[in-house]
Structure formats: C-alpha cells, structure tokens
TrEMBL record:
GO molecular function: hydrolase activity
Annotated organism of origin: Amycolatopsis plumensis
Keywords: Hydrolase
Residue ranges constituting the Isochorismatase-like domain according to the UniProt record: 4-173
Transmembrane region(s): none
Protein name, as recorded: Cysteine hydrolase family protein
Enzyme Commission code(s) on record: 3.-.-.-
UniProt keyword Hydrolase, yes or no: yes
Region (Disordered): 51-71
Length: 180
C-alpha cells in the first residue's frame, strides 16, 4: 500500500448519548478505530482527526461541550492534522483537507469514524470525486436508527452506495492486512 492517510471522523464523546441519538449498531466500531489508529501510528503513516463542531443549540457536539471531546480510544493519538468542521464532509472543514493531502503527495485515504451514513459516507464520496483512492473501513464506523430505518440497514446501504463507485469497502482486518 502506498502512503495512505487515515482519516478518523467525529470520534467524539457526544455520540455516547443514547437519549439524544437513539439505538446504534456495530458495538465493536471503536475497537476497530483504535486498531487502525495504532497501526497507522506504529508505521508513522499520516493520521487526520476531524471533529464535528455543531452549531445547533442543544447538540452534544457543540464546541466547548464535553461531548465535543474525542472518545478515549483516541487518547495518546499523535495526529498529523486535527481540525473541526460544521458540515458532513471533512473536505469542507476549517482546514482545506484536499490541499493538505495533495501538498504531501497523498492520493490514498482510509475513512473511518462516526456516523457511517453521514459524515463518513459524505467524506468518502467527496474523496472519490476528488480523485483519491478511498478505502472505507465499514466495521470501523457506526450509526444510529432513523425513523423507519435501522442503523444496520443504513450501514448496509452505505456500503452499497460507496462500493465500486466512490470507494472500496473493506473490513478493518483487510485494511490492516494490506499494511503488513
């Protein structure tokens, strides 16, 4: 695998509030996010941490709120870049991610984080549209039920939406195997 940046999106404590978000899927997602982070750091590959700074009153992801902080799985992270965003795509954040990646000659990214069908999927789609070789580590993401649709259904639909069009959808195990 050529030098590939790991982009961990919105791995924030505010997503631990089931009363706000509702039922979620994939309880092993955080362990997979941590495994990716550890592997990237061990190999000194570029790591990007993105946090959602919600402008909505009452959101647990608002700046200055405890929910805006990264989850414990990111403790000890040594990211190459950290920035916030107020919309779904990490490519439209407080930093020009596209310019940052291109300046370093990075053409391949792995996307993981929260939520599967919102910020992670949107970032993967934009990355694909911008010409990046995008890998979507599906089991290193999770999402929440929406009215009439379960989190597991959204998870599967995201994989189908991205596959062979915007990204290659893989398991964390398969992503890590390629690093070896």
């Amino acid at each position: 695998m050529t030098e590939t940046a790991l982009i961990l999106i919105d791995v924030q404590r505010g997503f631990d509030d089931p009363e706000f978000w509702g039922p979620r899927n994939n309880p092993g997602a955080e362990a997979n996010m941590k495994a990716l982070l550890d592997a990237w750091q061990e190999r000194r590959l570029p790591v990007v941490l993105v946090h959602h700074d919600s402008p909505k009153p009452g959101s647990p992801l608002r700046s200055g709120q405890p929910g805006n902080d990264f989850k414990p799985e990111l403790d000890g992270a040594r990211p190459d870049l950290v920035f916030g965003k107020k919309v779904n795509s990490a490519f439209l954040g407080d930093v020009d991610l596209d310019a940052w990646l291109r300046k370093r000659g990075i053409t391949s990214i792995v996307v993981a984080g929260i939520q599967t069908n919102f910020c992670c999927e949107t970032t993967a789609r934009m990355g694909g549209n911008l010409g990046y070789d995008v890998t979507f580590a599906l089991d290193a993401t999770f999402t929440f039920d929406l009215p009439g649709v379960t989190a597991d259904e959204l998870y599967r639909v995201t994989a189908a939406n991205l596959a062979n069009q915007f990204a290659t959808v893989k398991s964390t195990k398969d992503v890590l195997a390629e690093l070896s």
